[in-house]
Amino acid sequence: MRKPFWFRRIFGDLYTLFLFTQSDIRTALLPITFFSIAAAPLASPVRLLETTFWIWLHQLQCTVANQIKAPDEDKINKPSRPIPAGRITVEGATILRWALVPICLAYSARYSTELMQTSLSLMLLTVWYNERDGDKGPLSKNFLTALIYGVGEFGGTLVAGHDRTQVSPTGQIAVEVMIVVFMSTIHAQDFKDADGDHLTGRRTFPIAYPAASRFAIGLAIPLWSILLTVMWQLDLLCGIAFVGFGYYVGARFMLYRTVEDDKLSCKYYSVSIFILHGHESVLTVRLAWFSIHHLFPAYWYYHHGANQYPNILSHDLFRIW
């Protein structure tokens, strides 16, 4: 039986919205959701759905604003996105982009004033990044992307927790550390997109400093693995595994330099994979380096409770365990 036109139209529009965010689900939506429920910690199972939707809605606002700016880049790097695929025009996406601003603000306001202020901060940072060309320089691009990511995590943590007006000290420290970690390693995601970025005039670190950017990422990921292990006081087994994985990921970026190699290295850095094998009913999970350390606040709560909070300055950095 043929579905009515209105049903097909609604389903098609919803699928278009999904396609705007599809490529960022494993690199942004999942890690931010993991972080939010770990740092809050999660107040109830219902909050998980609310948190995921709040994050996705704001992610949609950011991605639509970004994709209307560089459709030519997407024709090269991500041709399945709605604009290069012809599912929506640039003009239609622009209307959607600005319609999402009041929608995000109103949806956040129903939870708390603090969450609405967080949504407003995300909107302003998105304007700075896209409409004010904050993405054109390597420094400003990394700085703004990390801030947008961090503010999103702060908002998700507010939605997930018991008190939607404040985040715990552990959660605040986790957000601040995450911003610095992401700011210093985010260009790991830019190596695979260098051709498209060059076409649009975007000067990322891999384009501006090809050799130095690989050396920097190869050094930063292992060093942060050690520092995060110390800060969150991981046990011996977890610490060895996380630091070892960090060294492996950092070494990949330095040693393997083709586009295909960079795509795989980026997956180890930031892409979490969940595969359900239907015939065996087995779920395969592969967490990336960036996603793994998003779970460390939950590890801290489990071992130290909510009344203590991490302070990296209180530890001897020359002793990992």
Which properties best describe this structure?
321 residues, globular, disordered C terminus
* Cα-based radius of gyration, to the nearest Å: 20 Å
The helicity comes to 55-70%
Structural class: mainly alpha
Overall residue-averaged pLDDT value: 87
**Series of secondary-structure elements, N-terminal to C-terminal:** HHHHHHHHHHHHHEEHH
Low-confidence stretches: 274-284, 314-321
Amino- and carboxy-terminal Cα gap: 64 Å
Q: Strand arrangement, largest sheet?
A: 1-2
What is the number of beta strands? 2
What general form does the structure show? globular
Measured by DSSP, the beta-strand proportion falls in under 5%
Largest sheet: 2 strands, antiparallel
Question: How would you summarize what this structure contains?
Answer:
Helix content is 68%, strand content 3%. It is mostly helical.
Structural overview:
With 321 residues, the protein is mainly alpha-helical. It has 15 helices and two strands. A two-stranded antiparallel ribbon has the order 1-2. A hairpin with a 4-residue loop joins strand 1 and strand 2. Helix 3 packs antiparallel against helix 5, helix 3 (45-67) runs parallel beside helix 6 and helix 11 packs antiparallel against helix 12 (236-255). Mean pLDDT is 87; it is low at 274-284 and 314-321.
Strand and helix layout:
Layout: H1 5-22, H2 25-39, H3 45-67, H4 71-77, H5 90-109, H6 113-129, H7 138-160, H8 169-185, H9 194-200, H10 205-208, H11 210-231, H12 236-255, H13 259-270, E1 273-277, E2 282-286, H14 289-292, H15 296-304
Antiparallel strand pairs: 1-2
Helix pairs in contact: 1-3, 2-3, 2-7, 2-15, 3-5, 3-6, 3-7, 4-9, 5-6, 6-7, 7-8, 11-12
